[in-house]
Amino acid sequence: MQNTQQNIVDAAILVFNEDYSAPLEKVAEKAAVTRRTLHRYFKGRDELLASCEQEMQRSCNHAMTQALASSDNPLTQLENMLYAGVDCGAKYSFFSKLHTRAEHQHSPHNADCAEYDAVYGHYRAVITRLQAQGTISQHITAEWVAMLFSGVIAATINAEAFGSVAKKSLKQFAWFSFSKGIGI
Amino acid sequence: MQNTQQNIVDAAILVFNEDYSAPLEKVAEKAAVTRRTLHRYFKGRDELLASCEQEMQRSCNHAMTQALASSDNPLTQLENMLYAGVDCGAKYSFFSKLHTRAEHQHSPHNADCAEYDAVYGHYRAVITRLQAQGTISQHITAEWVAMLFSGVIAATINAEAFGSVAKKSLKQFAWFSFSKGIGI
DNA sequence: CGGTAATGTCTCAAAACAGAGACAAATAAC
DNA sequence: GTTATTTGTCTCTGTTTTGAGACATTACCG
User: Which of A1, A74, B105, B113 is the most exposed place for a label (fewest CB within 10 A)?
Assistant: First the structure.
């Protein structure tokens, strides 16, 4: 019986990443908790989603900052950021999904969006640097690199969940495909 | 006022692809139709989902078959299959999503699964052929290639929806990244 | 062991969602 | 222009989801 609140948030991120409008019952189930308990911690769906947002920010920001600090070489930084995204799993997927959907109205004034911009900014700076020094192909745009980055991470997470690819190899495959895919 | 039923199915695929449990109201909204009209064509969510499944099968199968028929060169076939997936858009995304989720219990006895296997089989054959002739890197598995394929298509569709990458360039980017990403 | 905090069970009421009837309005067909 | 078909509006009913109170049960702490 330890940190139920965190359990529920983690479960919610997993569930909502796959099914945004899933009933809270499913979240409770995934967290191995009754719906009644979930409601003791969160007034409702909105509050739960807000906690998810916070957790994703915290987690992704931390992982990405670590990755950046790991080296001065932007290529190594990029590689570690990819691994960081994979390690964050659904937290990264759902986070970027939330902020790149058509419905989402992005505004730097919104604190959540600002935080997302901060995470994204780190990443963006590395890309720009690599493209300036000619490591990344000039045929593609930085925006596409960003999309591919998320796409490869999502594919890796799917593969992990599906189980058809050995978990140990996944990160290698991901970096192989992503790095080649951006012209390295 | 023409083919409302098809309109609704197309809208449903778009909506459910992003939010599987979205209320039918949202589908009706996307189709520019009232919920009452939707209910005249579909008894309920299940029937609508079944129609989506059929439409996705029809559409994807057709597009992939065309791509296969376009050439004898497996590499050209693969390239055209990627473009076909992008053209199918949410139809392809949702289709593959439905059949690769953890919840989904795959069974060849189910007609829908059999149809998916048929589409996937075409694709799989091309991959195997390319890997046998050494065109695709031996470092990665056919399963990973399949995951990456879906991932790149999803990324392309997201980029298109997000609008941050010029639509004309998207397919080029997608093929560039995917082909390099599998070692071509 | 005893006390406290967290969780589960049962229950109920409000809200959201789903489905369909009845008829008006709009659209297409002739 | 008249008729038939389709769609929209309003309405109602049943179901699912949501949220919370009251109390039993279980886990944790000293």
Answer: A1
Lookup: tokens for B32: 């520019």
**Bases in strand C with any atom closer than 7 Å to a protein CB:** 6-11, 16-22, 27-28
Residues B31 and B108 grouped into a single domain: no
Range of the domain at A166: 55-181
Q: Is B129 among the domain residues?
A: yes
Query: Is residue A86 one of the residues assigned to a domain?
Result: yes
Please state the domain count of chain A: 2
A73 touches strand C (CB under 7 A): no
- Residue found by looking up tokens 């080296």 in the block: A71
Clarify whether residues B34 and B60 are in a common domain: no
What is the 3-class SS of B35-74, one letter each residue?
HHHHHHHCCCHHHHHHHHHHHHHHHHHHHHHHHHHCCCCH
CATH code of the domain containing B80: 1.10.357.10
- State the average pLDDT for chain A: 95
- The separation between CA A82 and the C-alpha centre of its own chain, rounded to angstroms, equals 10
Quickly state the pLDDT bin for A163 (edges 50, 70, 90). Answer: confident
Reported as a single tens digit per residue, the pLDDT across A63-83 is 999 999 999 999 999 999 999
Exposed, middle or buried: residue B33 (CB in 10 Å: 0-12, 13-18, 19+)?
A: middle
Q: Are residues A88 and A156 in the same domain?
A: yes
* CA-atom Rg of chain A in angstroms: 17
Question: Does the CB of B40 fall within 7 Å of any strand C atom?
Answer: no
Same domain for B65 and B25, yes or no, is no
Q: Which of B45, B148, B184 to mutate to test the interface with A (most CBs of A within 10 A)?
A: B148
Same domain? B116 vs B172? yes
pLDDT-flagged residues of chain B (< 70): 1
The reply to whether B1 Cβ lies less than 7 angstroms from strand C is: yes
Domain check: are A32 and A66 in the same one?
A: no
